[in-house]
Each structure stands twice: as structure tokens, then as C-alpha cells.
Design brief:
Blueprint (H helix, E strand, L loop, with lengths): L14 H14 L3 E5 L10 E9 L3 E12 L8 H13 L3 E6 L5 H10 L6 E5 L1 H8 L3 H7 L3 H16 L5 H10 L7 H13 L1 H7 L12 H7 L13 E7 L10 E11 L2 E11 L5 E7 L6 E6 L3 H18 L1
Parallel strand pairs: 3-4, 4-5
Antiparallel strand pairs: 1-2, 2-3, 6-7, 7-8, 8-9, 9-10
Helix pairs in contact: 6-7
Length: about 325
């Protein structure tokens, strides 16, 4: 999924989860000997750790850090910081870091500026906006802690395909179709959703007996924009083996002419699952697509402005003829 700083909503997580997020971020940024004081009183800080500095003159040395994590929706006042300052005065770390989900009040900012020069340690503040800017460089942390449940559901569905070669069931696809934000979908998200639904054609038919039909027709336009190849996709695949395929979707009104295949493509000694799709309208405009089940889900999309019916038939013949040759 496309992830921006707007996706990072700290109100979706608990105080404990916010501390855990900060702990994981500090670990990612090479802080060592981290201790998260998650149980009982925090003894003046949520997290304690060490950070090593390499000086070209004197070599490597280590500094002691106290980290206080505060998840608030409103401004953080001096009263909420004072006890942590007092504890640092007693323990004398090298650095005291406040990581805030929101921001300092004006009073807190002015108070900290006045006392900084009086302390034997350095005080640092990371406020919510700056924290989002740091986190956006670590998409896996944003995904784990900050995405809404449907964003997480989509990523988990792709993960199951990657690890277990299992596609999402119809109920999952229906929830995603109704709730996922299309503007947040990446190229591989869109191809994965469309192909998964068509490959569940039999289950979808039964599902529609008791539920309202759903469609991924709205993905056609984004797929056109995502197009990144010009040549027919199947001609570049060698040693493919057709596992299963599904045809036209009578429930879709506009783009009901579809062909989706589940392939195993040999690359060296590995056989990697792929999803291949071809979709068109009655006027001859179409999209050809392919996604591979590897870590970054490499994806090819070709937009066909006209003549898609003929190309669809060529693709089907290519798949069937190659399967006979296996």
C-alpha cells in the first residue's frame, strides 16, 4: 500500500503500543541495551538504552539515554514533564529524550528552554509531526502499528499468498472492496485484489446467493495509470505451468470479460507463484497484468486502448497451448 504520514494516526493505538512502537524505532536506529519498563512504575523513564558514537580522534564511546514516550492528543504541559526531569536530575544520564505523539504547549517549550542550560544532560524533544517524518521511512513499523484494520487485512492477505500460496476468501475480498481506500492502493495491491476475486469465481457465485454482489470495477482506471510495460506480458514468461484459471465474471457490469490464471513460473531452481490477469470491456479496451509472489510483489501492467478482445483470445490460447506442452 501507499503509505504517507497522514496514515500515521497515534489515536488508533494504546499508550503501551505507542511505547512499543518507540522501542522498535529506537532498536531500528541502532540503540543498544534497550530496556522497556513496561510493567509497574516506570522509574522515571519508559525506555533506557545506550548509543555508541565513533569519534575520529578518540574512537568509540557509549552514551546513556533515558527515553520518555507520551501519547497525547493535546499539548503536553510542563506538569507532565516535571517528574521525568526530576528523575533524570537524580540519575544523571547523558541524554533525556521525550517522544511525543502530539506537541509541547507554549509554556512547556519556554520552560524547557530555560532549564536546559542548567542540566548536566542534554534534553531532546521529538514532537508528533517530526515523529511521523521519521516513521514514514520505516514502512513496516507504520504498517504494524498505525494502519487501519482494512489496510492490515490487505497486507496480511498478501503475506498469506507469499508464504502459503493461499488467496483471500470471498468474505475477505468483500470487506476489502467495501472499506479499503482506493487512493491508498499500490500497483501490486490493485492487481492482487482483482485477480484474487476472479480466481474465487465459484465461491463468489455461491456467496452472491445470500449477499449483494461486489465489484472491483473501480480499479480499472488506476490500473491504466499504473501501466508500466508495453509488450504482451506472457511472451516474456518461460517454463510456466498453469495451475488454474477462471473466465468471465457475469456479475460485473462493465468489465465482465476477464481471464485470470494462477501460474508457477520457473526461475532457476525455484518455482514461484504468479497471478496473471486480463480484463476488458465490450468496446475493446483492456488491461493485462501479472504479479509475482516475492517480497516486494513485482508487478507488470499493460494498458490496451483497443483490440483487447483479440489479444485476450491470444492470451488464452497461449496459456492452454503451453499447458498441453508441460
Amino acid at each position: 500500500m501507499f503509505i504517507s504520514d497522514q496514515d500515521i494516526d497515534f489515536s488508533r493505538i494504546t499508550d503501551s503500543e505507542f511505547e512499543e512502537l518507540c522501542f522498535d524505532l529506537l532498536y531500528r536506529l541502532n540503540y543498544k541495551s534497550l530496556v522497556w519498563r513496561r510493567a509497574g512504575p516506570d522509574a522515571g523513564r519508559d525506555i533506557e538504552g545506550q548509543y555508541s558514537i565513533i569519534n575520529p580522534l578518540i574512537g568509540e564511546y557509549t552514551e546513556r539515554w533515558f527515553i520518555e514516550c507520551k501519547r497525547y492528543t493535546e499539548g503536553v504541559s510542563p506538569e507532565k514533564l516535571n517528574s521525568k526531569i526530576a528523575w533524570a536530575d537524580a540519575e544523571k544520564p547523558d541524554h533525556l529524550l521525550f517522544i511525543l505523539s502530539s506537541h509541547l504547549t507554549t509554556g512547556a517549550r519556554e520552560w524547557l528552554e530555560k532549564i536546559k542550560s542548567q542540566k548536566p544532560y542534554i534534553i531532546h524533544i521529538i514532537e508528533g509531526k517530526a515523529l511521523r517524518g521519521i516513521l514514514i521511512q520505516h514502512h513496516d513499523l507504520v504498517t504494524r502499528y498505525c494502519l487501519d484494520k482494512y489496510g492490515k487485512l490487505l497486507l496480511e492477505a498478501k503475506r498469506k499468498w507469499l508464504i502459503y500460496d493461499v488467496l483471500p476468501d470471498v468474505e475477505t475480498l468483500a470487506m476489502l472492496g467495501a472499506n479499503i481506500d482506493p487512493s491508498r492502493l499500490s500497483r501490486d495491491d490493485a492487481v492482487f485484489l482483482w485477480c484474487s476475486k476472479i480466481l474465487r469465481a465459484d465461491e463468489y457465485e455461491k456467496w452472491c446467493e445470500e449477499h449483494d454482489p461486489f465489484s472491483f470495477d473501480y480499479l480499472f482506471h488506476p490500473l491504466k495509470i499504473f501501466a508500466n510495460v508495453e509488450k504482451p506480458i506472457l511472451q516474456d514468461l518461460e517454463y510456466q505451468m498453469l495451475v488454474s484459471f477462471s473466465g468471465s465474471d457475469a456479475w460485473d457490469m462493465t468489465y465482465k470479460y476477464t481471464l485470470v490464471a494462477k501460474l508457477l513460473v520457473t526461475k532457476g531452481k525455484d518455482k514461484r507463484p504468479h497471478l496473471y490477469g486480463f480484463v476488458r470491456d465490450s468496446e475493446g479496451e483492456g488491461i493485462e497484468m501479472l504479479i509475482e509472489a516475492t517480497g516486494d510483489f513485482p508487478t507488470k501492467i499493460r494498458h490496451i486502448p483497443s483490440g483487447a478482445r483479440r489479444e485476450e483470445q491470444n492470451s488464452l490460447a497461449h496459456l492452454l497451448n503451453h499447458t498441453k506442452a508441460q
